[in-house]
């Protein structure tokens, strides 16, 4: 597939693009800085609607000029570009850029009749990550039916983006899938970070004791590219196990006392349920920090 990918120069985007290239997709990265991945790139401001629709409807490589068949079209757009969290700039600017860029990308894609859009939402939509104090979930494991009423501007922007996507899908009928991505971990970060998580599990409370390997995130994007006809859907994206050394029963006792537990949980099962992604798009995460640390 020919895929326009926004934000491919970021932490998650680089791994996702690498995976898509390995699967044989033709990827064009759209960002404000080069990625160094070797794929075609356009450096634009996604807050400018004219630049966005222009990027989706122009030549990007000299070789495309040789066919004489006009500008090639895209099979899908993957939108990862965003201010990645609060407390980088002002709250208002985080919300403005994240909502405006998402609106511009989805509007341009649908107007150009690109049949699929995949966009990055977030674990933060469930409010816990950037809450003031210790906010507990309504129930565990958290699945996509859990309320999304966040308290911070980053998570607010993601909830707003989900409604934007849902509205465009209702109007156009194209497939638009949102990925509620958990804390992205690169392979080298297991040895660097996870010993501390084993020592002090409370460090992972705000991430719902979950994580997503950057390579498995790329696999999830590919699963969505290969799955048609779902309309509008959102998916939690996480690995199968927790990011701490405790058992699920121990986590519940220590951190989720009084919280409803829906169903039996395996001893290492993630509290950020990925069952919907497995069932609907064939997501099968392959990596674990436990393969690196004994």
TrEMBL record:
GO molecular function annotations of the record: UDP-glucose 4-epimerase activity
Enzyme Commission code: 5.1.3.2
NAD-dependent epimerase/dehydratase domain sequence ranges: 3-224
Uppermost EC category: isomerase
Domain of life: Bacteria
Swiss-Prot/TrEMBL keywords: Isomerase
Entry protein name: UDP-glucose 4-epimerase
Organism: Pelagimonas varians
């Amino acid at each position: 597939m020919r895929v326009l990918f926004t934000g491919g120069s970021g932490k998650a985007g680089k791994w996702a693009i690498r995976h898509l290239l390995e699967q044989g997709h033709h990827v064009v990265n759209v960002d404000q800085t080069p990625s160094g991945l070797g794929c075609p790139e356009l450096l634009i401001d996604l807050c400018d609607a004219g630049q966005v629709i222009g990027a989706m409807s122009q030549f990007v490589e000299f070789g495309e000029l040789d066919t004489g068949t006009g500008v090639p079209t895209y099979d899908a757009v993957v939108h990862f570009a965003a201010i990645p969290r609060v407390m980088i700039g002002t709250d208002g600017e985080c919300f403005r850029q994240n909502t405006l860029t998402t609106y511009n990308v989805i509007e341009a894609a649908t107007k150009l009749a690109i049949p699929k859009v995949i966009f990055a939402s977030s674990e933060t939509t469930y409010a816990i990550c950037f809450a003031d104090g210790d906010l507990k979930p309504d129930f565990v494991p958290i699945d996509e039916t859990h309320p999304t009423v966040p308290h911070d501007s980053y998570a607010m922007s993601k909830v707003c983006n989900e409604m934007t996507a849902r509205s465009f899908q209702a109007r156009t009928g194209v497939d638009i899938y949102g990925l509620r991505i958990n804390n992205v971990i690169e392979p080298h970060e297991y040895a660097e970070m996870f010993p501390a998580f084993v020592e002090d599990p409370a460090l992972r409370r705000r991430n719902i004791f979950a994580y997503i390997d950057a390579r498995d995130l790329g696999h999830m994007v590919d699963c969505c590219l290969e799955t048609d006809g779902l309309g509008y859907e959102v998916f939690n994206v996480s690995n199968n196990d927790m990011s701490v050394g405790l058992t699920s029963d121990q986590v519940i006792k220590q951190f989720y006392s009084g919280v409803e537990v829906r169903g039996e949980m395996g001893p290492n099962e993630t509290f950020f349920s990925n069952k919907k992604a497995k069932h609907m798009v064939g997501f099968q995460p392959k990596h674990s920090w436990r393969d690196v640390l004994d």
